[in-house]
Amino acid sequence: MNLKLKRLVRTPSSEQYALFDLDQLTPESTPMTIGKLDLHYTGEGMYGTLLLWDNASHQLSSSQRSSFIRALLQEIAQPMGVPNEYVVEFFAPTLDRYQVFHNVGDAVAGEEPAAAESSPRRSNGPKN
What we know:
- By secondary structure, this protein is α+β, with helices and mostly antiparallel strands.
- The chain has one domain: Aminopeptidase (3-Layer(aba) Sandwich).
- The protein has 2 helices and 7 strands; from the N terminus they run ββββααβββ.
- The chain has helices at 54-57, 62-80, and strands at residues 3-11, 14-25, 31-41, 46-52, 86-91, 101-102, 116-117.
- A hairpin with a 5-residue loop joins strand 2 (14-25) and strand 3.
């Protein structure tokens, strides 16, 4: 696995990353999305949720997954200057029922935006 992180959102106390495997490509020849990491920073450390798509999770043994998660969090914590203590919940969901709800591009001036539903993304998770 050749991991690449792409920061999607950053606030003064949190970040969200998309996780990609550069060794796996989608049919569009873009890196495969393998998961997502949400982190919240406090004076005591990091708290968050790691989603590693089920098919990516199955490629790792339990000990490899633990090492992967520790290395990932260490790499993020040190540059941020936050304490090395963390609590991160790990989930390995399937993408069978994955959906994104948004109102991006749907609003017309003066109208309330309506929630729009995207198609479930089964093979590569959220859009890159």
